[in-house]
Each structure stands twice: as structure tokens, then as C-alpha cells.
Amino acid sequence: MTAEPDGPEDRLRRLTTIWSRALFPVTSTSLTRAEFEEQLLPLVRRLSELLRARSFDAEAAKAVGAALVGAHCTDPEALTRTLDCVDAYLVLYCGADGPQDELRMRSSRLQHAMAAGYAQALRERTLAEQEAIAQAALQAQGVVAQALHASEARFRAVFEGAAIGVGIADLDGNVLQVNEALLRMFGLSEQTVRGRRVQDWVHPEDAPQTWRLYDELVRGEREHYHLEKAFNRPDGTVLWTNLTVSLLRDADGSPQYQLALMEDTTERRLLNLRLRYEATHDALTGLPNRTLFFERLEKALNAGEGQRFGLCYLDLDGFKTINDSLGHAAGDRLLVEVADRLQSCATAPGEMVARLGGDEFVALTTGPGTEREVDELAERIMHALVTPISIDGRDLLVRGSLGIVEGPAGERTAAEVLRSADITMYRAKSAGGNRFELADPEADARAITRHGLTTALPTALERGEFFIEYQPLVHLGDGSVRGAEALVRWLHPQHGVLGPDRFIPLAEHTGLIVPLGRWVLEESIRQARAWRERHGDQSAAGPLRINVNLSPCQLSHPGLVQETVDILERAGVAPDALCLEVTESALIGADDDLLKPLRRLAEMGVDIALDDFGTGYSNLANLRRLPVSILKLDRSFTQGMQQFPADPVDLKIVEGIVTLAHSLDLAVTVEGVETGAQAEQLRILGCDTAQGWYYARPGPPERLHDLALVDATG
Q1: Is residue 327 part of a domain?
Q2: What is the pTM of this model?
Q3: Final residue in a domain of this structure, among 221, 246, 270
């Protein structure tokens, strides 16, 4: 089966051709370039699969790097050309249809793994060569005199032909012999090297144990050692090597020479440093990224007794608006400018700025006096954002919300510190933004609890953890029970029974209020039917009615009317058995589209009650256009009636509202009735129905049935 023109197979072969042209000139192989290209094709296919795989397979990428060594691509230039080719063309030819940022990050990780696999395979090959050289050296000393010439010839062949640097010195450190590979690595002549002593090659970056191991070896206390060591070249550059030094003994076992084997790792080290930088720094701003920030934060938190840390967590206010209006390119330039300003704020020792992602930045300060330093750092950050940023000829005013966490090292983990800073930042944003707040353990605990409740809401509904209590609605004229308000509760496994004020706002925020409200409506209608079947029409006022609260999110849900009709029909309950309560604040300034579902329900016979009336500062003239039949007066107007004599101002206000409502053919229900004097005063003022602890607290449906039955029988 042949690939379509410019299909995946064509792109793979073009990438293979580019790679082979770059790699073939520095490869020691007897193959032709066409044969070498066919040898690379399976490796390209494997890289393409790894680039687009769902999960990153580091071992498979290492195998690709190791395969290059197996193909005799051992010249130091071979790895550099390979990685340059992969970096420039892999995403272009094998990931054109995918998310480019993710693919480039995956490509960078593939390069890192390939380099590691290449280095490991080359090291294994080098060690094999080292073993061969060591064996040859030992054999050259240990053979009998008749075979000495042949043994020395074999050793010389291995010595001169090795790809790694080899040097021999006496136990005083005088260099006796070196091969060509070592001379090329140092850029020196043989005469210059032979005049040196091993002890002259001290380097500032030598590991602490370097010369201790050397002394142990020349004293005969150690047979060999291996470490990474740097050397200064004559041109001022640094040569990094994997150095293995072995002790050579004579026939009697006495120490005689030292043999050094050096593998040039300079290019590999520079590559690792580059890959390390790319893995720990943000590609857009150049700031340290989340990975490096967490490393520094964990180091600060483990600094020991007496050390402290301060953390500022910054989120730009309104950044999404800039992205949506001016485009992501303008948003990126804005982030770069913000990053530069933040970087200028953290220049003292122990301070750093990092970008966590999006428009979120963090600044860290460490040391014994961070209580004062973190406040000063926050002030500098806020001041740095005052000056507008010019993007495409527009001066953009940038503001930010900042959360500050400060404390001693060793008490919290990095994740806990960052979570506290994040919570504090959102507290600053909720307070209006363009400000900073200090972390508060109590506020953190509340936020964590809210988050836990939010995440538990969906499964709580599935597990049936919600239940409904009912508070009776009593007619003030004859004291009969006319219905009840359904009040949902949550029986939480850890926190016990939670009232609606604890979880309804969370359900509103997450959208779960729609299925939760539907469940409450279904359960309440089912209960209303059960009451009517048990109670019948024993009351002269008619059957009991159920009041169900309707949230703003439910009000705007397109399926509200149809779902309500379906629930009523399935339960076999008439619409006049239902009253939907909508808060006054939800209807302030409501347009006709928002009111249309309520009008349709009202036309069907469902009562609509305006809940918390008097708290929304609405225009009273709007009552004429709202499809409501009941006003529920907020309890704040009637609290003054709990004492005798009642507050005359409250009496006048309630009297005026009742007169207005009745003139508009609206019934009036009062909430929060707690005393008999209060109930009597409201009856005299003409209120129609009331609810409150004076009559009954919210409870199970059976209690309401008993109350209604008592009213019906006298």
C-alpha cells in the first residue's frame, strides 16, 4: 500500500533524508548514504510515534539514542547534529496537526531522553574500551619475556587507536605517555603534556573527594576510582571529562604506574545544561517555571532552624479581557513586560520571581528576616504595576491581586504553602482586586472546607445525601396550615447536617443547582401529592400547597417550564399545588426574556412568590410587570414587632407594603415570626400567611401532616 502524496510516510522519509545528510559526514560506517538513510528510517518512525503518544515513554526515547551509537555515530558532533535536527524538524514533519506548545515540550523531553540514552550507550562502549586497554596494559607487563614484544605491540595499537584519551604517569605524578585522542582533547602538543605533573591540573570545580582518591591510589590503598572532572584548556575554555584512574602494579604486586582514561563530555554537559534550562524556565518570559520554583521553595522550607520564607502569589486582574479583546499575541507581550517588571523587584539575595502559568506569578524571599522583607517585596510588586503598559499603541492599565504567605521553615510543605497563597490571592481578588492580603489560617480552613464541599456535591446527589425539611405556612386569620416551604438539607458524612447557606452558593457557582433544584422540586411535588392523598380537602381553605425556592441559575435554565410541567404531570398534581419562590434581587432589572418562563408558569396556575421582599431596593412600580401573586416580606421588617410595644416605624412600613400588595391583588406572607404578639400584630396589619418558629421549626413531612390534620379537625 503506497502513501498518498505528502502523506505521513512522505513526511517521515523527508525527515529521514534531512537527518541522514546532517549525520552521515560525521559517522564512521561502511554503508552508503542511501543505506545509512534506510537504517535511520525506523528510528524516525519511532520518534514520530513517541511524539504523538498519549504518555511519555522515556525508555523508548533512550533506545533511539542508544541505536545511534550502535550505528557507529560516535563522533561528538553526531549527537549535536541529531538533536538540532530533531529540535528543528520533528514537530514540523510529525506533529503539524497537534497542539504546538505541547508537542514542542514533548520534543524537548524526547531530546533529553535521547541524549541520556546516547550517553549511556557511549559510556558502555567506552567502558568496554577502557577494559580492553586495562587488560592490554596488564598483559603487557605480566607476560613472559619471549612474548614481550608482541604484547607491547598490541598495547600500542590499543593505546594509539582508542577514541578516548589515555595517559600514563608515574607515582610522583610525572606524565610519561599520552595518546593522540588526549592531545586533541586538551589542544596541546605531546612535549607540552609530558612536561606537566598530574597535580598541576587542579580545577576550582573539582569535587571535594577528587584529590583524596588520587592520594589513596598512588599510595596503593585503592586500585581505581571514577569521577567527573574539569580541566582548563590553553584557550581558556573548560574541558569536562569522565575520568577513570587505575593503579598498575609490577609482577611483584608493587604499585608502579597510574593509568588515566578520559572521555570528553563537554558537549554532552552543555546539552544537559541547555535542556535543564529549557525544562526549568518559562519559554515566553524566561522566568523560572513551576518546576524550578518548587525546587527553590522546598529548599527554603528545609533550610533549618531560624530560617524563614515569604511568598507573594500574583494573579493579574482582568487579563482574560485583554486576551479576548486584543488577542493572545498582545496578551503574551503584556506578560513579557509584566515579567520584566517583576524581575526588577526581586534582585536581593534570596529573592526570585517565577511564572506558574497563564497570568500567575510568584515571588519568593528567604532568610531570617522575611516578616519585613515580604511586605516590602509586595509593595514593590504593586508599585511596579502602576505604570500603564503600551501594547500596539494602547496604554493598558494592569492591576493584580496578591496573596502573601510568610512563616518559619520546616512547618509546612511546598504544596501547603502554595495552596495557602492561592487561597489568599483569591480572597484579595474577591475583595475587589488591585490589593494584597495576608494569609489567615482560619480563612484558609474555610476555603479548604468550601472546596471539599464543592467537589463532594455531585457525588452527594448521586448517593442520596440530601433530604428536605418542611416549615408550615399558617393563615393568620384562622390559624390553619395552608402549605409548607421545602428547605433542602445535606447530611454530610463528615460535617453532619448542613443548611442551604453552606452549599447552595457552591451549587450555584458550579451549576449543580440545576439538577439539585430539579430533585428538590420532584421530591416536594411528590410530598405534596402524599399530603393531599392523606389530608384531602378537610380544610375549608383547600388542599395544602408546597413552596419551592427557585435560584437565579434555575430561572435562566431553558428547560425550566417543561421540566416543571413534566414533574407535575408525572406526580398527578395540579399546578395550583405549587408555589415557586424567587428572590427579589434575582428579578431586579429583569428583562422580558427572563420573566417569560415565570409568566408561562403563572398562566398555568403555578403561584409565583417574590421572596425577601424589601431587601433588593427594587422600584415598587415594577411589581405591576412581574408575574407574582405573593409577596414574602423579609424578616428584617418584623423583628421590631417581637417586643411590646412594637416599633412604630416598622408598623408603618409593613402597613404600607400590605396596603400596596392588596391593591395589586397580591397576598402577603411574613417570614421569621417567633412570638404570639408578633403574629397578632401582623394579623391586625392584614398580612395573609406567616411562617416561623412560633408555629414550627422546619421538620419532617409527617409533622406537617399532623399539624394540618389538627387544624382540619378543630
Answers
A1: yes
A2: 0.55
A3: 270
